[in-house]
Structures are given as structure tokens and as C-alpha cells.
């Protein structure tokens, strides 16, 4: 027996490879599987006839009863799928056997099973693989279900949603979020997150809206962690056989394979429409028998009740069968919107029409025009909540029609007697124009709309005018100045400017109502003026012209020149012989500095005015007055007080002569300065006090009390103990005195300072 057994054991070794893999002994099969790997790898062509011998045996390879032999069999299957051109014929049988026998086995066998499934996708058998994996999701063993979910996730992550479409399996994955097995729930959640990366939130969320709140919260948490514009951005990392040449070119140029997704010629993301993944439903079969009766009931609660039921039914079934007649249902809803006096009932009816239009899409074309007309006409309600709901209904209905079909109704609504209806119509047209092109809005059709819009630009209602300008601006943006401007020649410049402003703000939309990605700006710039080549181009900007400077009438100011001292008088101090300073225009800074400086020492000799017949007038020319900018020259021989200057109205050639007082002259102390404010000092003959005595016409001194009360000043100053004081005298021996407060203007707020005066007896010499 042993010899026979030994002979039997040695006999299978002499068998060819295709017979060893079918032998009853698992060792013989395992040896045959190992020989198959070498055989498949050493074939010169993928169309070698050797591959034909094993096409029908591949199914038996993956379901071998012995796990050790099956592990080697999977290596042979992987080599066959990778090398043989006819491997695609075995996809259904091999994939089915792998799912049932290998996905719940030990880890090494499971990894090789994953490699085979993904290799089938690489040889462009992704449709068959997806079908088999979807069948595996219904398996009763949680390990197999979890492995199928993992395979779908790996395939989507490596190949992308363009290669492995999401639509065939998404509907079966969502219920597994609530599976009783934790591994299945976790893996299904990971797959949903991977789907989210490829199709985005806007597409995915409507598909998973029926998920439990707790699960939705968990998913939302995972979604928030993703950085889809950075590290988590989905990228295709594995390529089909038809994409291998492109992959090699990318590798030769040292460009990472992840950049492939950015290639405009190769979009790896699936253009997935969630609406296409839904099953159509005939809601008319599910309506209550009392719907049509209660919809015409006199009790508004009955009408609202049946409409609420209809709205719930439409919400739960967003996709409707297109071969069903909805004319009776649409007729009832239009009647309610047009004539029902109860606002809540009207709102629910409008929402039902919106759901109907979205559920039928282009199949709603038979009812679109009449529904839009009724909704826009009901905008006369003037209530914001009603207008918003009706506007949503119009937007949902428009994909079923076009501007050419709507033109007749639009012209009628643009001349509606109610301004709010015209406004809402123009706002609706603005959105329609945003989705239009030159093909959908030819010149003939454009003129039909322009006539009504141009007429509404002259309406008394501001909202109607603005909405008309907005519609014209959108047409300008969509079609360009070349097509629109020739029809607007009757409008004035202000209206054209307003239209251009709206055109610059306008945003063009695609057919889905989303902003266009690369919408060109068609607004033409203002044509430039032709210039000569030799000219210099200077940009001209509009600016407000500066206001002309106010004309200031300058008061005549005396120009005082230093005169040589008389022979009888003593020589002036050295400071008096200094040259006169150059005239300068006082500034605010120089004025403040002068105020802070101490008063310069006064000369020991008073000044006597040279003979002149003109009357002198002491005028306030305080440096704080901004209206006086005339040049002033101060004589070096007689320092003049900062608060006053001597001005004459008839002669500018007055000369001051220094006069010395004898040292025995008594100087009275400076009186306290008054704080009264005066605008000017007008020194006239009436202000001079004359007193004559018998001794040669000498002038007697005035009382100190009267003198002190007649000296106005704007700030207090400490009297100085100067030994001399300047006195201005006329030829007629009149003493110039300060004006009394009665001769000044009390309303002026210009500060005035005057020279304190004391009366000194004229020397008998």
C-alpha cells in the first residue's frame, strides 16, 4: 500500500500543470498553482494560447477547499489577470468566488484577494466588479460586508469617481450606517467620507437626508475635519490600462501622478447628479381619494390640510414619473394661487407647484408658461413672504421653458397696471437673462424684450425703474455692448451710465443657476481718443475745481524809515544805527514765537513825529488778524508795540524823529491793563485832550485817573520800571491818547493791545 501510495504520490508530479491544478491531492494542486505563476509570467505575449487552457479553471482556483492551496491559487489568479489579455472573461466568476471564499479568510489571503479585485478594475472591468461588490453587501456575514465596503473605498480612493462611479453603490451603502455590526457601521462611514471628498457636500447631502440625526452628526464631524483644498483633496493614484501611457509620460517628466487630476483634458471627478440616482414615483396613485373634493372646500382648513399632505408626499419623493398626466393637479394648484383669498393656502399651493416642477424638470414644460404667468400676477399681493415663495416657483419652473416661449407673456406682464407685478417680472427676467446666450436670445427676440424694459425706465415708481435698469444691465453683460447699445440710442446719458453700472455688477449664471466659472467681462471700455505720436499722454481725472481764494482788501500800512537824529539831540544808541530789517510776511509760528519773547528794551529817547499836516489814526493791526498780510517794517530807532501800528490814510511818507527827555523827567508807573476786548482804535481829534497854560502854550498833564480808565487791553501785563516811555506827538503839540471804550466796537472778538500812555510836562527848555 505504501509503495502504491508512494507510486501514486510520484505519479502526479509527472502530470502537466493544467492537470495538477485539478488533482484530488491538495499538495498536487498547490504545486500546480506555483507552476502556473511561473508559466504565466514567462509568456512572451498576453495572447499566448497557454492562457486559453486556464480560462475555465480560474473559478476553481479561488474556491479551493484547502486554504494553503487556495492561497497559492490566488497568486496564480493574480498573475493570470495581470498577464492574460482574455482575463476579462473570468471577472464575474472569479470575483464572485473571491467574495464568498476569500474575504472572510486569513489576512494574507484577504490581501491577495484585494489585489485581484483591484487588478480587474485596472483592466477596465470596474462595472462588473461594482456589481459583484454590491451583491456582497447583502451577504449575511459581517466580515464579507465589511470587506466589500473596504474594497469600494480603496477602489474609489485609488482610481477616482470617474473610473469607479458612485451612483451604482451609494444607495446600498447608506442603510449600512445603521447596521448592527460595529465594523460594518464604521466602514460604511469611512466610505461615505470618501464619497464626500469626490462629489462634495452639495451633491451628497440630499442623498443622505434620511439618515438618523446621531449618524448625521457623526458624519458632519468627519466632514468638518477635511481640508478639500489641501491635504485631503482627492487625487487619482492608480490608472487604467488605457491610461498607462499617460502615466509613463508623467513619470518621465518627473511630475507627480497626483497632478493628473488638475489636467483639464482628464477630469477624474464624476459629474454626479443626485437627481439621477433617485427612483421615480407616481404620486397620483398615492393621493387620498378626498383630495380633489377638499381642495375646493369652502373651509380653508380643509384646503390647507390636503395641500399639506400633497407637499409631504412630494418632499418624500423628489423624483416623479415623467409619463404621468399632472394637468388636473396643476390646474387645481393654479386656481388656488390665482383666486384663493387665504394666504397660508396660497403659500402651500405654491410650494407644491415648486416641488412638482423640480420633480419633473424638463417634463414640466407643458405647464411652465401658465404657472409662471399665474405666479407673477399674484405678486400683486405685495407681501414679502408671498412674493418670495412665488419667485421660487418661477425659478423652479423656468428650466421647462425658454425666453422665446415666454416672450408673449412677458410683454403682457411688463405693461401690468400694478407696479409690483412689473417689478417682479423684470427681476425674474434678469435671472433668465443671466442664463442666456446669443443663441438662446437672438436679435429678433431681444427687441421684443427691450421695448417693454425701455418704456419702464421712465416710470414714476423708483422700484420699477431700477429693476428695468438691472434687466438692461444684465442684457448688456450677457450679449455685449455691440448687440444692446444700438437699441438704446433714445436713452439719455444718465440712464446709459446707470445701465453700465448694473452691467458691471451683474453675474452670469449657468443652466443650474450657479455662477459661471470663466464668465468673460463683455462690458466695453470707453473708446480712447486718438492722439498724435509726438504728443505726450496726460491722464485726465475728474476733480472738483478748487474754490478761488478770497480777495482781501489790504489796509494801507505806514512804511517807517529811520531818520538821522537832529544836531541838538544826543547820538542814538548803537542799536538805532543798525540797518532796517527786510520786509517779511508774518506766519502763525513766527507770531507765537514773538509772543513768547520778552519785550525788547526801549530807547532812552522818546520819538517825536516829523512835521506833517495829515491826521494820524491809530489802527488795530494785531498780528492775530489773518486778513492783514501786508508787509510791515519796524524802525530801529523807535520800537513799536506788538499790539498796534501807526497807519495813515493820506500820506505814507511820515517820518519819526527821536527826541530825548531830560533825566529829571518823572515817569509815572504803568497803569493796570484792562481786559476789555476791542476791535480797533480810531484815534481822531475828538479823542485828544488839550489844555493850555500861560507859559508858552505848554500842555498840562491829564489826571492819572482819566488816563488809566481810557486804556483798553486784552491781557494783563506787569508794569515795568522803565525810565523812559515812548510818546508820539504831533507838530501841533497834541498828545495822542488812547480812545475811550465808547468809540470801540464791543461785538468784535479780535484781540487788541495798545500802548500805555502817560502825560509828561513839556520841558521849558
From TrEMBL:
One of its GO terms (biological process) is establishment or maintenance of microtubule cytoskeleton polarity. Pfam families: XMAP215_CLASP_TOG (PF21041). GO terms for molecular function: microtubule plus end polymerase; microtubule plus-end binding. Residues 591-600 have a biased composition (Basic and acidic residues). It comes from the Eukaryota. One of its GO terms (cellular component) is cytoskeleton. Residues 613-654, 673-690, 711-722 have a biased composition (Polar residues). Keywords: Cytoplasm, Cytoskeleton. It is found in: Cytoplasm, Cytoskeleton. Its main location: cytoplasm. Residues 566-576 have a biased composition (Pro residues). Signal peptide: none annotated. SMART domains: TOG. Residues 691-710 have a biased composition (Low complexity). This is TOG domain-containing protein. The lineage of its organism: Eukaryota, Metazoa, Spiralia, Gnathifera, Rotifera.
Amino acid at each position: 500500500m505504501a509503495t502504491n501510495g508512494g507510486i501514486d504520490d510520484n505519479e502526479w508530479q509527472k502530470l502537466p500543470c493544467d492537470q495538477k491544478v485539478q488533482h484530488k491531492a491538495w499538495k498536487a494542486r498547490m504545486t500546480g498553482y506555483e507552476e502556473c505563476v511561473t508559466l504565466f509570467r514567462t509568456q512572451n505575449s498576453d495572447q499566448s494560447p497557454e492562457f486559453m487552457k486556464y480560462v475555465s479553471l480560474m473559478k476553481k482556483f479561488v474556491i479551493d477547499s484547502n486554504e494553503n492551496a487556495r492561497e497559492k491559487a490566488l497568486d496564480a489568479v493574480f498573475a493570470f489577470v495581470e498577464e492574460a489579455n482574455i482575463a476579462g472573461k473570468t471577472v464575474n466568476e472569479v470575483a464572485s468566488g473571491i467574495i464568498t471564499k476569500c474575504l472572510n479568510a486569513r489576512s494574507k489571503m484577504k490581501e491577495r484577494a484585494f489585489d485581484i479585485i483591484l487588478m480587474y478594475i485596472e483592466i477596465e472591468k470596474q462595472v462588473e466588479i461594482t456589481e459583484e461588490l454590491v451583491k456582497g453587501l447583502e451577504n449575511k456575514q459581517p466580515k464579507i460586508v465589511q470587506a466589500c465596503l473596504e474594497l469600494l473605498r480603496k477602489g474609489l480612493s485609488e482610481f477616482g469617481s470617474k473610473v469607479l462611479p458612485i451612483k451604482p453603490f451609494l444607495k446600498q451603502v447608506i442603510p449600512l450606517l445603521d447596521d448592527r455590526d460595529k465594523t460594518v457601521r464604521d466602514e460604511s462611514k469611512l466610505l461615505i467620507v470618501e464619497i464626500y471628498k469626490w462629489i462634495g457636500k452639495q451633491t451628497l447631502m440630499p442623498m443622505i437626508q434620511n439618515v438618523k440625526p446621531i449618524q448625521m452628526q457623526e458624519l458632519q464631524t468627519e466632514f468638518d475635519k477635511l481640508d478639500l483644498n489641501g491635504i485631503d483633496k482627492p487625487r487619482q493614484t492608480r490608472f487604467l490600462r488605457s491610461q498607462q501611457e499617460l502615466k509613463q509620460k508623467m513619470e518621465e517628466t518627473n511630475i507627480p501622478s497626483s497632478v493628473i487630476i488638475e489636467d483639464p483634458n482628464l477630469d477624474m471627478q464624476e459629474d454626479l447628479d443626485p437627481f439621477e440616482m433617485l427612483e421615480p414615483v407616481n404620486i397620483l396613485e398615492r393621493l387620498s381619494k378626498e383630495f380633489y373634493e377638499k381642495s375646493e372646500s369652502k373651509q380653508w382648513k380643509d384646503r390647507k390640510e390636503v395641500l399639506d399632505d400633497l407637499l409631504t408626499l412630494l418632499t418624500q419623493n423628489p423624483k416623479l414619473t415623467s409619463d404621468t398626466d399632472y394637468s388636473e393637479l396643476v390646474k387645481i394648484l393654479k386656481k388656488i394661487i390665482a383666486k384663493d383669498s387665504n394666504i397660508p393656502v396660497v403659500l402651500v399651493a405654491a410650494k407644491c407647484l415648486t416641488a412638482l416642477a423640480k420633480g419633473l424638470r424638463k417634463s414640466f414644460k407643458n405647464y411652465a408658461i401658465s404657472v409662471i404667468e399665474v405666479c407673477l400676477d399674484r405678486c400683486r399681493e405685495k407681501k414679502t413672504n408671498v412674493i418670495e415663495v412665488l419667485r421660487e416657483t418661477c425659478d423652479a419652473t423656468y428650466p421647462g421653458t425658454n425666453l422665446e416661449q415666454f416672450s408673449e407673456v412677458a410683454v403682457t406682464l411688463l405693461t401690468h397696471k400694478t407696479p409690483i407685478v412689473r417689478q417682479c417680472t423684470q427681476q425674474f427676467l434678469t435671472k433668465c437673462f443671466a442664463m442666456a446666450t446669443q443663441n438662446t436670445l437672438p436679435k429678433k427676440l431681444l427687441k421684443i424684450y427691450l421695448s417693454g424694459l425701455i418704456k419702464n425706465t421712465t416710470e414714476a415708481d423708483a422700484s420699477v425703474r431700477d429693476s428695468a435698469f438691472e434687466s438692461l444691465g444684465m442684457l448688456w453683460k450677457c450679449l455685449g455692448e455691440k448687440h444692446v447699445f444700438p437699441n438704446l440710442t433714445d436713452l439719455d446719458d444718465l440712464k446709459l451710465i446707470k445701465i453700465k453700472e448694473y452691467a458691471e455688477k451683474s453675474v452670469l449664471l449657468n443652466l443650474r443657476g450657479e455662477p459661471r466659472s470663466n464668465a468673460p467681462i463683455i462690458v466695453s471700455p470707453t473708446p480712447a481718443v486718438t492722439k498724435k505720436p509726438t504728443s505726450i499722454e496726460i491722464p485726465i481725472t475728474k476733480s472738483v475745481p478748487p474754490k478761488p481764494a478770497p480777495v482781501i482788501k489790504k489796509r494801507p500800512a505806514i512804511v517807517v524809515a529811520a531818520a538821522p537824529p537832529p544836531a541838538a539831540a544826543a547820538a542814538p544808541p548803537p542799536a538805532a544805527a543798525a540797518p532796517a530789517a527786510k520786509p517779511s510776511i508774518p506766519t502763525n509760528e513766527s507770531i507765537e514765537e514773538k509772543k513768547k519773547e520778552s519785550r525788547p528794551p526801549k530807547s532812552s529817547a522818546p520819538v517825536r513825529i516829523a512835521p506833517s499836516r495829515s491826521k494820524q489814526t491809530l489802527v488795530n493791526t494785531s498780528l492775530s488778524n489773518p486778513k492783514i498780510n501786508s508787509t510791515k517794517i519796524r524802525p530801529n530807532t523807535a520800537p513799536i508795540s506788538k499790539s498796534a501800528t501807526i497807519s495813515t490814510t493820506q500820506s505814507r511818507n511820515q517820518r519819526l524823529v527821536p527826541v530825548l527827555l531830560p533825566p529829571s523827567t518823572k515817569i509815572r508807573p504803568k497803569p493796570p491793563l484792562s481786559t476789555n476786548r476791542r476791535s480797533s482804535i480810531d484815534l481822531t481829534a475828538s479823542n485828544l485832550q488839550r489844555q493850555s497854560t500861560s507859559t508858552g502854550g505848554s500842555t498840562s498833564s491829564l489826571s492819572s485817573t482819566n488816563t488809566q480808565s481810557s486804556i483798553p487791553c486784552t491781557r494783563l501785563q506787569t508794569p515795568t520800571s522803565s525810565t523812559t516811555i515812548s510818546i508820539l506827538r504831533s507838530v501841533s503839540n497834541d498828545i495822542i491818547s488812547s480812545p475811550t471804550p465808547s468809540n470801540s466796537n464791543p461785538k468784535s472778538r479780535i484781540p487788541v493791545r495798545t500802548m500805555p500812555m502817560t502825560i509828561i510836562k513839556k520841558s521849558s527848555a
